[in-house]
């Protein structure tokens, strides 16, 4: 392994002398019910080797059969990436030995991918749009899962042995390969992150992948090379494998730019090799250099026949395409009337769908945003999950808001009620009833509490009489205390003014 | 067509993951040379305009509906395993990277 | 009991239906025959595994159904209760499957091949698994890791290959029926040299699911028997669409039994038989050529129109085959690595890494011929050579198909000797791989083009059987059965009975050997 302590060149300095060229291979796991070539279930997280048929295990004598839904999902991805769809394409075998690959070849596509020559307009955070050209998107199958045992790190280096689970072997994948991306300059790391985010959003929006990066549903290999500013010949590239979070994609590209610049500035040559990303140190280390062992001996898969797409089939699939995410965002922003900053925060929090559903359930856009970006996000943060993972339904929010508007409860109580809902105590109305949380609307009871408070704070009363109405706030605290928080602050204010004979 | 060299055979054996002794490499090199010479004429048989045939009987669009079928039990999966542990296949350390 | 084993499958089936013989008796007679002639120093060694218990149980079940009569008995398949032998390349639950390799010694499949499911459903008792060249790579069965099979006509000669076990089992009356697989002639060439019938169906006509792949675009499972009609019955049973095989034809199985029965009348009026000019003459033994010429006369006398056809690209077929087949082999056999099943060998010294374990396992688990083909195929597919080798071979495949297309314009079926020679002596070609490959010169074109072929006995040369091969256009397997059965019936008239009845009596030979 090469030394990890290579001298880096500061990012800004590197960019003064060099233009980065990027390239991405993004693997998307499809969420079909069964695998690519076998009718085994495609399910994440089951007990080892339980989602396995003779085909997944590569037993002697087995044959693959293509999952039609996986082909259709692949075409949908191709269409969403503005690709051409091949009229005819086939599968090929990529031959290499590795214990997670049951047949010791991967069934993939080689010369004739199902989708090719597309593009994706990627929007950076400040709204600048960058077009990424897509070279191809092809169908293939995932490998099994290796767990390295022994040694100290759980990593492949130093392991005593490995255990193999073939549940994932054969899960359908679509590999999306970009053309070289030039001209991103300083924004290269940012673009890298935005590109992967955009791909993830597209496949999620299509409903063809669960698109959870933490589960490996979307995995990215990032290619980086540098060329002197103004040059037109690409430098030698490195390929950083399995960069599996958006943040990591950004950091990995940034690190590789700094590292490449360091190598070039030292007068050395960049080695064409794979690199491994280390999240803990935010660095990459050298993997395997390109060698003659990379002779994959591709040839047409003789056990499978070609896929031929008709215009009718493509159009039928095109009709299924949902609104593209960028267009949808533009439309929703206008419909909801959020400010640029508000809308960006919602997008970045990944809450477009949740808010949209809440609005559809009857809440106003402002109310929906208030709950999702406020209390629900806070609870999610405390619970170390994402807001959508808490299980708050749009109906709950609508009901809570209705109780507030009917002045049955106030905001503070409503937040408590939400917690009780999440604890499984029932609907908001049931909880308010059961726990006796309804706001005290009985003016006589409230009046007594107000009079008590006024009696103990004559100075405050004097200030109010002098016209300093904001002093009423000092009375609200004791009244709330006396009514166990169930008073409606607005009503308290009205009653105080009424008692003092002041026009509010 | 140049004859196949001993180095070629050694490289091919590595690609194919078959360990070979020096004596085996020598023997294999000789045998493959004869065979390759005998079949070399194939490369001149067809012109550029002849399409390749990979499937003897042309078919297209043979698909399976996305419906879950029967899986093996873990016992069946592992019944022929040379070594296993924790419902998984056990293999010696892997040095190479993917 | 001798009588039972001499019956054809169709004759035995009739006796089972008539209640003259029970299936248990039939199975037991064949088990006895196996015990008498298969084992020992100079036994036929057609079987790698004998499945006595299960075969007898299935036989008893058939007998019980038949005894009960009624709808159950009516619903029985015509071949129900007729025992069958299975080439050990086809996976079976409950019996080991070795592919003739040390790599899979003791391996038990958790699933049945589709053809095995059909055989179980039709209730044919499976006598056991038959010997073959390792992973079906060979023309003599000498490349079996478990020792060669002997030719029942002369125990010092090869029974052909790779399916020498199935052909010898049928020729030695150890089974009336067997399954084979044919990638470059592995059903037809053993049929020819053992005086039996073997059919390679149209590619896609029989499911390959569960046949351990040698070369996926060439492999086909097919029937092995002593009569053309028996093969027709078995072919109809195993044929048909299988959703587990993407290359399986989604078309009804043609009526092969009817075609065979039509042929047995001996009338071939109006049938055009094309003699392939390139598949005779140089390289074909005089005795083989003589029997072939006689067969043509018999066909002509039966009303067939004999025409000559030219297939100029067949001269490249052997070369193309020995590029395509090993290429697919190199990939298909990659799965045998000591990780999931089969043999695992720990290297004697040095570090124990998975790469070294795979290398040692494959070095010890595969025999020389398998290694040769894997290395050759790896070469043909490797960077820089693909276009010249694999790519060119696939183009030759197109040329061979065009030759067939042109020939079938002029003829309904084509004819040639099945193999250029009669059975050669054990050990006489094992040191010369290329000489061994030349055995397949007449059978290979059919595999490259996917067309069906049959080999039927054509008489003897120096006391050893000669095979006559017919080829038909894809999906026209029925023509083979008609013409094959016609030639069979007409030749048998001349011989005064089946050719196989002229084979030496093994049981007495065995006794003499022991004494």
From TrEMBL, chain A:
InterPro entries: Asn/Gln-tRNA_amidoTrfase_suB/E, Asn/Gln-tRNA_Trfase_suB/E_cat, Asn/Gln_amidotransferase, Asn/Gln_tRNA_amidoTrase-B-like, GatB, GatB_Yqey_C_2, Gln-tRNA_amidoTrfase_suB_CS, Gln_synth/guanido_kin_cat_dom
PROSITE patterns, A to Z: GATB
Annotated protein name in UniProt: Aspartyl/glutamyl-tRNA(Asn/Gln) amidotransferase subunit B
Ranges where the Asn/Gln amidotransferase domain occurs: 353-500
Coiled coil (residue ranges): none
SMART domains xrefs: GatB_Yqey
Function: Allows the formation of correctly charged Asn-tRNA(Asn) or Gln-tRNA(Gln) through the transamidation of misacylated Asp-tRNA(Asn) or Glu-tRNA(Gln) in organisms which lack either or both of asparaginyl-tRNA or glutaminyl-tRNA synthetases. The reaction takes place in the presence of glutamine and ATP through an activated phospho-Asp-tRNA(Asn) or phospho-Glu-tRNA(Gln).
Keyword set includes Membrane: no
EC number: 6.3.5.-
Protein family (similarity comment): Belongs to the GatB/GatE family. GatB subfamily.
Gene name of the encoded protein: gatB
Automatic annotation (TrEMBL), chain B:
Keyword Nucleotide-binding: yes
Alphabetical list of InterPro entries matching this protein: Asp/Glu-ADT_sf_sub_c, GatC
PANTHER family hit by this protein: GLUTAMYL-TRNA(GLN) AMIDOTRANSFERASE SUBUNIT C, MITOCHONDRIAL (PTHR15004)
Family: Belongs to the GatC family.
GO molecular function term, any single one: glutaminyl-tRNA synthase (glutamine-hydrolyzing) activity
Catalytic function, reaction form: L-aspartyl-tRNA(Asn) + L-glutamine + ATP + H2O = L-asparaginyl-tRNA(Asn) + L-glutamate + ADP + phosphate + 2 H(+); L-glutamyl-tRNA(Gln) + L-glutamine + ATP + H2O = L-glutaminyl-tRNA(Gln) + L-glutamate + ADP + phosphate + H(+)
General function of this protein: Allows the formation of correctly charged Asn-tRNA(Asn) or Gln-tRNA(Gln) through the transamidation of misacylated Asp-tRNA(Asn) or Glu-tRNA(Gln) in organisms which lack either or both of asparaginyl-tRNA or glutaminyl-tRNA synthetases. The reaction takes place in the presence of glutamine and ATP through an activated phospho-Asp-tRNA(Asn) or phospho-Glu-tRNA(Gln).
Subunit field text: Heterotrimer of A, B and C subunits.
GO BP, sorted A to Z: glutaminyl-tRNAGln biosynthesis via transamidation; regulation of translational fidelity; translation
Keywords assigned: ATP-binding, Ligase, Nucleotide-binding, Protein biosynthesis, Transferase
Name of the protein this chain belongs to: Aspartyl/glutamyl-tRNA(Asn/Gln) amidotransferase subunit C
Gene3D superfamilies noted in UniProt: Glu-tRNAGln amidotransferase C subunit, N-terminal domain
Pfam families cross-referenced by the UniProt entry: GatC
Gene: gatC
Xref: HAMAP family: GatC
Annotated EC: 6.3.5.-
Enzyme class, UniProt record, top EC level: ligase
UniProtKB/TrEMBL annotation, chain C:
Annotated region described as Disordered, given as residue ranges: 141-160
Major enzyme class: ligase
Domain of life: Bacteria
InterPro entries documented for this protein: Amidase, Amidase_CS, Amidase_dom, AS_sf, GatA
GO annotations of cellular component type: glutamyl-tRNA(Gln) amidotransferase complex
Active site: 87 (charge relay system), 162 (charge relay system), 186 (acyl-ester intermediate)
Protein EC: 6.3.5.7
Keyword annotations of the record: ATP-binding, Ligase, Nucleotide-binding, Protein biosynthesis, Transferase
MF term (GO), any: ATP binding
Residues in Amidase domain copies: 26-480
Pfam families attached to this UniProt entry: Amidase
Chain segments annotated as transmembrane: none
Catalytic activity, as annotated: L-glutamyl-tRNA(Gln) + L-glutamine + ATP + H2O = L-glutaminyl-tRNA(Gln) + L-glutamate + ADP + phosphate + H(+)
Single biological process term from Gene Ontology: translation
Family: Belongs to the amidase family. GatA subfamily.
Function: Allows the formation of correctly charged Gln-tRNA(Gln) through the transamidation of misacylated Glu-tRNA(Gln) in organisms which lack glutaminyl-tRNA synthetase. The reaction takes place in the presence of glutamine and ATP through an activated gamma-phospho-Glu-tRNA(Gln).
UniProt xrefs under HAMAP family: GatA
Complexes and interactors: Heterotrimer of A, B and C subunits.
Listed name of the protein: Glutamyl-tRNA(Gln) amidotransferase subunit A
Organism, scientific name: Zafaria cholistanensis
Organism classification: Bacteria, Bacillati, Actinomycetota, Actinomycetes, Micrococcales
């Amino acid at each position: 392994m090469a030394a990890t302590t290579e001298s880096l060149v500061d990012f800004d300095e590197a960019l003064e002398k060099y233009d980065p060229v990027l390239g991405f291979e993004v693997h998307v796991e499809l969420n079909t019910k069964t695998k690519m070539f076998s009718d085994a279930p495609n399910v994440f997280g089951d007990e080892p080797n339980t989602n396995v048929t003779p085909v997944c295990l590569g037993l002697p004598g087995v044959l693959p059969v293509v999952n039609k839904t996986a082909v259709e999902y692949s075409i949908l991805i191709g269409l969403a990436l503005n690709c051409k769809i091949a009229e005819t394409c086939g599968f090929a075998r990529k031959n290499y030995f590795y214990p997670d690959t049951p047949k010791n070849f991967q069934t993939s596509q080689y010369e004739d991918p199902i989708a090719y020559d597309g593009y994706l307009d990627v929007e950076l955070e400040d709204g600048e749009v960058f077009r990424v050209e897509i070279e191809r998107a092809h169908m293939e199958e995932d490998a099994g899962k290796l767990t390295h045992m022994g040694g100290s790190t759980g990593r492949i280096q130093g392991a005593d042995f490995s255990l193999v689970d073939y549940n994932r072997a054969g899960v359908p994948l679509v590999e999306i390969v970009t053309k070289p991306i030039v001209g991103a300059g300083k924004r290269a790391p940012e673009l890298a992150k935005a590109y992967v985010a955009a791909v993830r959003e597209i496949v999620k929006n299509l409903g063809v992948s669960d698109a959870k990066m933490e589960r490996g549903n979307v995995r990215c290999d990032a290619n980086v090379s540098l060329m002197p500013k103004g040059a037109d010949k690409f430098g030698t590239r490195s390929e950083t494998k399995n960069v599996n979070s958006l943040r990591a994609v950004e950091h990995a590209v940034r690190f590789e730019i700094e590292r490449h610049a360091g190598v070039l500035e030292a007068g050395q040559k960049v080695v064409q090799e794979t690199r491994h990303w280390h999240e803990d140190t935010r660095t990459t280390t050298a993997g395997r250099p390109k060698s003659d062992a990379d002779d994959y001996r591709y040839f047409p898969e003789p056990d499978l026949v070609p896929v031929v797409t008709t215009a009718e089939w493509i159009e039928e699939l095109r009709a299924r395409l949902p609104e593209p995410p960028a267009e949808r965002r533009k439309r929703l922003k206008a419909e909801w009337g959020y400010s640029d900053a508000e809308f960006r925060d919602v997008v970045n929090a990944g809450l477009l769908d949740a808010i949209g559903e809440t609005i559809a359930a009857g809440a106003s856009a402002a109310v929906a945003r208030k709950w999702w970006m406020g209390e629900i996000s806070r609870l999610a943060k405390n619970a170390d999950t994402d807001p959508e993972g808490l299980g708050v339904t749009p109906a709950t929010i609508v009901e809570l808001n209705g109780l507030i508007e009917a002045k049955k409860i106030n905001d503070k109580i409503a937040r408590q009620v939400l917690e009780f809902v999440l604890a499984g105590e029932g609907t908001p109305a049931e909880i308010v009833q059961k726990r006796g949380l309804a706001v005290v609307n009985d003016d006589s009871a409230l009046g007594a509490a107000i009079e008590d408070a006024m009696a103990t704070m004559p100075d405050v009363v004097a200030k109010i009489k002098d016209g300093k109405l904001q002093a009423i706030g000092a009375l609200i605290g004791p009244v709330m205390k006396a009514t166990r928080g169930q008073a409606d602050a607005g009503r308290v204010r009205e009653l105080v003014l009424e008692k003092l004979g002041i026009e509010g | 067509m140049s004859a196949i060299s001993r180095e070629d055979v050694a490289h091919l054996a590595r690609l194919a993951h078959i360990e070979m002794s020096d004596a085996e490499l020598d023997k294999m090199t000789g045998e493959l040379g004869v065979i390759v010479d005998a079949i070399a004429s194939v490369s001149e048989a067809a012109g550029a305009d002849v399409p390749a045939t990979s499937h003897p009987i042309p078919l297209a669009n043979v698909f399976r509906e996305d419906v879950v079928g029967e899986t093996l039990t873990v016992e069946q999966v592992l019944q022929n395993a040379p070594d296993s542990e924790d419902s998984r296949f056990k293999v010696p350390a892997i040095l190479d990277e993917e | 009991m001798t009588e039972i084993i001499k019956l054809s499958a169709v004759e035995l089936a009739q006796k089972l239906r008539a209640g003259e013989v029970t299936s248990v008796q039939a199975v037991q007679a064949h088990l006895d025959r196996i015990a008498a002639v298969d084992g020992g120093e100079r036994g036929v060694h057609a079987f790698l595994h004998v499945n006595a218990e299960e075969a007898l149980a299935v036989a008893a079940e058939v007998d019980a159904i038949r005894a009960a009569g009624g709808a159950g008995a009516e619903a029985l398949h015509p071949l129900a209760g007729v025992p069958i032998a299975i080439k050990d390349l086809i996976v079976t639950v409950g019996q080991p499957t070795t592919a003739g390799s040390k790599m899979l010694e003791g391996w038990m499949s958790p699933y049945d091949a589709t053809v095995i499911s059909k055989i179980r459903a039709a209730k044919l008792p499976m006598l056991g698994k038959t010997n073959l060249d390792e992973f079906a790579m060979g023309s003599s069965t000498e490349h079996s890791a478990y020792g060669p099979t002997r030719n029942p006509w002369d125990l010092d000669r090869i029974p052909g290959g790779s399916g020498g076990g199935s052909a010898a089992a049928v020729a030695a009356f150890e089974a009336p029926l067997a399954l084979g697989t044919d990638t470059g002639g592995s059903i037809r060439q053993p049929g020819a040299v053992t005086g039996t019938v073997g059919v390679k169906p149209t590619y896609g006509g029989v499911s390959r699911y569960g046949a351990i792949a040698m070369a996926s675009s060439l492999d086909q499972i097919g029937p092995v028997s002593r009569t053309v009609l028996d093969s027709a019955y078995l072919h109809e049973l195993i044929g048909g669409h299988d959703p587990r095989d993407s290359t399986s034809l989604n078309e009804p199985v043609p009526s092969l039994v009817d075609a065979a029965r039509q042929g047995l009348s001996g009338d071939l009026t109006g049938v055009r038989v094309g003699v392939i000019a390139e598949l005779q003459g140089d390289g074909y033994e005089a005795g083989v050529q003589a029997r072939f010429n006689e067969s043509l006369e018999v066909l002509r006398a039966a009303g067939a129109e004999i025409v000559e056809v030219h297939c100029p690209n067949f001269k490249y077929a052997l070369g193309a085959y020995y590029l395509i087949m090993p290429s697919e082999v190199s990939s298909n056999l990659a799965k045998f690595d000591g990780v999931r099943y089969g043999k695992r060998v720990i290297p004697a010294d040095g570090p124990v890494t998975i790469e070294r374990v795979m290398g040692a396992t494959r070095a010890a688990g595969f025999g020389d011929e398998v290694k040769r083909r894997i290395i050759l195929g790896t070469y043909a597919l490797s960077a820089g050579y693909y276009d010249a080798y694999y790519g060119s071979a696939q183009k030759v495949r197109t040329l061979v198909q065009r030759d067939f297309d042109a020939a079938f314009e002029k003829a309904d079926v084509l004819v040639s000797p099945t193999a250029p020679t009669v059975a050669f002596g054990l050990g006489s070609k094992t040191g010369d791989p290329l000489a061994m490959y030349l055995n397949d010169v007449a059978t290979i074109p059919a595999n490259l083009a996917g067309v069906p072929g049959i080999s039927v006995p054509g008489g003897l040369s120096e006391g050893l059987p000669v095979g006559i091969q017919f080829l038909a256009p894809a999906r026209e397997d029925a023509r083979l059965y008609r013409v094959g059965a016609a030639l069979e019936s007409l030749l048998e008239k001349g011989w005064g009975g089946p050719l196989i009845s002229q084979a030496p009596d093994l049981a007495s030979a065995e006794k003499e050997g022991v004494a």
